[in-house]
Design goal:
Length: about 675
């Protein structure tokens, strides 16, 4: 008897057909996705095709010019060819209105990546229909970002070791990777992975509809971002493809339902595989947790099917893993109700209320004086925020650190040095709907946070040693500020904080020292080759939920949510405590010391808060009347700032010395108070 054939690493779970009821729910899902704008119009589809046709011609012209530059005869230069391949959501056929197109430019061996970022960028700048050109040559996958006739394009390049690029070139053969460097392989594999996913699903139409649903759900729930530590588009596509393999004859509504059932029970770190990991002709490293310790550390591994297989979710952190799992469980409850006709698919796509969820937040601000530079700086910081999250996790002071996947970007015209300084520090004027704002005097005159004398025991602001104590950097920034008036571009990222219950005395005082991870993160950012101290600044602020700017709520209620039940909070804390204890036992940190000899913290971030009675510090509990007595002490604190030396000085508070309590918590003794 011949062995039955199936797609995937295991046999299907269920090969039966969907019922009429399930088919009807799939039709309902399709209608809702259309109403949610998840399908492009015919006009937009044609425009994309025209744009891709123009880019293909430009690539051939680029290869011709580069060939002449490298002294090839004109007859040979005109025959060298060049070809583009699309990948990502466009190639998968699940892109919506306004989505970008990931495009790969394949060129012959004598054309270099430097040619691509020199000649090709120059050609693009010559075209009036091309705007917002941002070359990013020094990144994991070098790319040119642009907008071509209103279509966002991410253009990458791969150099093949052959003299010409024929029109019938295909990329599935592993032999084309021979003698390629790792950068070209990463560029090429975007297209190879996408094509392999389509080859490994039993029904492409069903896969596409189910994936559109999951993509919309992940975006609405703010868990769609590879740079921020969540799943990216390729990772979500591979999980949906795996469910399609397990239920090959089911319709999209059933695939979506089984997606949540399977993922909620998945035993991580067991990897999600669409096929067995294979070796290839070239000696590239493939994902192998038995041999590579870094691969063993992946928390939710989803492995790409094309050689060399890699983990598409290596950025997932301890916190983002918990967030994904909670959202999957929420989705499971909803889809089960949908199948029972107790609710509709729309409930699945409700927007996440991130800014109503937590009591405390960190605001990471980065700014520059050039719009094009800011675009690249924004992407750079977005790719680094997750490293701040992992550093904060090691302090043991948080149950959860939730990075928000979107940033808030603005440009301001400043009328004075003081305005420019305050904006760089993260004290932004009240935002309007327009992307560009010329603030008036009233909107810019935001008072510097000061701590009332009555509440000095409960909140502390201290200077950042990097900005004020090392090599006179603050003085340098201040001396140069007179030439910085004009337009300033800003990007603000937010982290939601779920605090632990440790380090609390019977009196209720609490200490949170984030100086070490914050200084490390700022140092990491500033050591990058993209950083320029003369034109760029970074600042980090600690905020209460009620201090968040109005723009993040989008006109909705600011009232915090009571969405976490006690059992959910206990389960989160239990899992976090287990992870924190294992990591802290290996390498104790300064934050975990509670002995009498603990040195006073005088630099970086030191924030002290007084919790209110009958309120949880961990969740988004609604404020009670007892909070009103301490409202004056809840002003925003500039907790780390590398570029500001304002003339308006906040109230100075002595550095706190942590002292242990009988219960093992920490209270603060303020020197000089």
């Amino acid at each position: 008897m011949s062995k039955p054939k199936y797609l995937g690493v295991t046999p299907p779970v269920d090969t039966s057909q969907s019922s009429e009821e399930e088919e009807a729910l799939a039709n309902d899902l399709l209608s809702i996705l259309k109403s949610e704008g998840q399908f492009e119009s015919e006009e937009e589809r044609k425009n994309r095709e025209v744009v891709l046709g123009k880019i293909d011609k430009m690539v051939k012209e680029f290869v011709y010019r580069a060939s002449l530059k490298h002294k090839l005869p004109e007859s040979l230069a005109s025959a060298c060819g060049g070809k583009i391949f699309t990948f990502g959501s466009y190639r998968l056929g699940v892109h919506g209105a306004g989505a970008d197109i990931d495009t790969l430019c394949v060129v012959p061996s004598h054309v270099t990546r430097d040619d691509f970022f020199d000649i090709m960028v120059g050609m693009l700048k010559e075209r009036s229909e091309v705007t917002e050109i941002t070359p990013v040559p020094k990144t994991y996958v070098p790319v040119i970002k642009m907008q071509f006739s209103g279509v966002d394009i991410d253009l990458t390049v791969a150099v093949l070791q052959q003299p010409t690029i024929p029109e019938d070139l295909e990329l599935f053969d592993n032999n084309i990777l021979r003698t390629m460097n790792s950068t070209c392989v990463r560029s090429l594999n975007g297209s190879r992975v996408t094509d392999e996913i389509l080859r490994l699903v039993p029904n492409i139409a069903t896969f596409r509809l189910a994936l559109r649903c999951i993509k919309l759900w992940a975006k609405r729930r703010a868990i769609y971002s590879n740079p921020m530590g969540f799943f990216g588009g390729v990772a979500w596509a591979m999980v949906v493809a795996r469910i399609c393999q397990l239920y090959p004859n089911k319709c999209a509504s059933t695939i979506v339902t089984r997606f949540f059932h399977v993922l909620s029970r998945w035993r991580w770190p067991t990897p999600v595989l669409l096929k067995e990991i294979e070796s290839g002709p070239a000696h590239f490293q493939v994902w192998n947790p038995r041999l590579d310790r870094g691969d063993r550390d992946h928390r939710m591994p989803i492995i790409t099917p094309a050689y060399p297989s890699m983990c598409a979710t290596h950025n997932v952190s301890q916190s983002t893993k918990q967030i994904i799992e909670m959202e999957v469980k929420r989705g499971l409850i909803i889809v089960d109700k949908v199948m029972q006709h107790e609710t509709t698919w729309r409930d699945l796509f409700e927007k996440d209320e991130f800014f109503r969820r937590y009591k405390f937040y960190l605001q990471v601000n980065v700014s520059s004086t050039d719009g094009d530079v800011q675009h690249g700086l924004h992407g750079f910081l977005e790719s680094r925020v997750r490293q701040y999250v992992t550093r904060l996790e090691t302090t043991g002071q948080f149950v959860l650190i939730h990075p928000y996947i979107k940033s808030y970007d603005h440009d301001f015209v400043c009328k004075s040095d003081e305005e420019a300084q305050r904006i760089r520090a993260g004290f932004l004027p009240v935002q309007q709907e327009a992307p560009a704002l010329v603030p008036d005097e009233k909107s810019i005159n935001v008072p510097t946070p000061a701590v009332p004398e009555a509440d000095q025991d409960n909140m502390e602001e201290s200077s950042d040693s990097e900005s004020k104590d090392r090599d006179g950097k603050a003085e340098k920034d201040d001396s140069n500020s007179s030439g910085d008036t004009g337009k300033i571009y800003t990007s603000a990222f937010y982290l939601g904080l779920l605090l632990t219950e440790r380090d609390r005395s019977p009196a209720g005082k609490r200490r949170m020292d984030l100086s070490l991870p914050t200084q490390e993160f700022i140092r990491l950012v500033k050591e990058s080759t993209v950083w320029d101290d003369e034109t760029m600044t970074i600042s980090i602020r600690f905020l209460r939920q009620e201090q968040l700017p109005d723009e993040v709520f989008g006109g909705m209620s600011r009232e915090r949510l009571h969405y976490l039940s006690s059992s959910k909070k206990r389960s989160i804390r239990k899992a976090s405590k287990k992870n924190n204890e294992s990591s802290l036992s290996d390498k104790p940190t300064k934050k975990s010391r509670t002995d009498d000899t603990a040195a006073p913290s005088t630099t970086g971030i030191v924030v002290s808060t007084m919790p209110k009675q009958n309120l949880s510090e961990q969740d988004g509990g609604n404020p009670t009347a007892q909070e009103n007595t301490a409202k004056d002490s809840d002003n925003g604190v500039l907790v780390a700032n590398d570029a500001i030396k304002s003339d308006e000085q906040p109230t100075t508070i002595p550095a706190p010395v942590p002292l242990p309590t009988r219960s093992g918590g920490i209270r603060l003794k303020l020197l000089g108070s």
